[in-house]
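Worked problem 6 (solution included).
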Amino acid sequence: MTPEELEEQIPWEAEHHIPFSKDDVEIDHQLVGSEGGSGGQMELLLVAAKKEVVSDYSMVIREAKLVPMIMDVAAFTIQNAYEATIRWFLRRQWPSSTSAPLSATSTSWRAVPAHSRAT
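Solution. The predicted structure is:
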């Protein structure tokens, strides 16, 4: 399956795994396993967030005169925060970013300083 075909097929396949209408959610995916093996199946990481939640948080970010670039689900944000912390310990430099982890039951906001700290 070509990347274009996969992109077209994702919303239809996602309906089987997401408890909301595909029209009510933002969907993203990442291919984690290639075609091959039995039946030419692929392994995908599928993420969905309600459009209303994404819109609300985007609006808050814009009202703070910031530009939303990426919104992550909580598990990914935790991983990214861990990696940023490791980078800080190794290089003593904070990344210039903030994060807004989204989940089905709650959303929290974390900010990472947008400046480097001198050691």
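Discussion: The two ends are 50 Å apart (CA to CA).
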